[in-house]
Amino acid sequence: EIVLTQSPGTLSLSPGERATLSCRASQTVSSSYLAWYQQKPGQTPRLLIYSASSRATGIPDRFSGSGSGTDFTLTISRLEPEDFAVYYCQQYGYSLTFGGGTKVEIK
Amino acid sequence: QVQLQQSGPGLVKPSETLSLSCTVSGGSSSSHYYHWIRQPPGKGLEWIGFLSYSGSTNYNPSLKSRVTISLDTSKNQFSLKLSSVTAADTAVYYCARDGGAFFFDLWGQGTLVTVSS
After folding, report:
1. A-interface mutation test, from B2, B46, B102, most A Cβ less than 10 A away
2. What are phi and psi of B61, to 5 degrees?
3. What distances in angstroms separate CA B68 from CA A55, A71, B50, one per listed residue?
């Protein structure tokens, strides 16, 4: 099973700042099968990025994904108030796993 | 607009079988893969398994012995059964549609299932 480790666990930032979230895999992950989600309290996860760098429908361009192999990054260029949430990465290889999540909180 | 509507009991007794359904409305279930995912209270997401439009399945190895996902095309509905549940199976259960490369572009509303006597 491929383990995804997200860091940091919590990111404390102010609106307008740049957020960089890391997702590191225990084995090589196909970029085609790496996705990112946003989840707010009490809500269903929302797809942000698929295939490592493709934005999902309706996702603002301040969200971007990059990376390959075992290291992937989600970047939020300028945080808006509605971006404070938990973010998960997810991969599919033989099996499908999620990272443990990064909480982006208001500083 | 395609929606996923979940149904099923919110309380299951230990050792019994958890059963949930997910109805695809506003579209056909015959051209996508569908997944079940769960999230224990206050914790992260765990994939349970998927069902392809041809009826093939793939399950999380840690749950494989207890999980069955099936499809009823006549009802545009797919179902989850998880047997021999314990308190550790208490979670919000989600159904989700595969967007084509094993990511989830459409989610059900979630069902909190509590395992308790």
Report:
1. B102
2. -55, -30
3. 32, 33, 10
Q: Judging by DSSP bridges, how do beta strands B67-72 and B77-82 pair with one another?
A: antiparallel
A37 CB neighbours in chain B (<8 A) are: 45, 104
Residue of B nearest to A31 (CA): B101
pLDDT tens sequence for chain B (117 residues): 899 999 999 999 999 999 999 999 887 666 789 999 999 999 999 999 999 888 899 999 999 999 999 988 888 899 999 999 999 999 999 999 999 889 999 999 999 999 999
For B117, the token pair is 């006597």
- B94, B101, B109 member nearest A51 (Cβ): B101
Chain A nearest-CA distance from B117, in A, is 25
pLDDT, one tens digit per residue, over A15-69 is: 999 999 999 999 999 988 999 999 999 999 999 999 999 999 999 999 999 999 9
> Is A92 at the interface with chain B, CB within 8 A?
yes
User: With an 8 Å Cβ cutoff, are B107 and A45 in contact?
Assistant: yes
3-state SS track over chain A: CCCEEEECCEEEECCCCCEEEEEEEEEEECHHHEEEEEECCCCCCEEEEECCCEECCCCCCCEEEEEEEEEEEEEECCCCHHHCCEEEEEEECCCEEECCCEEEEEC
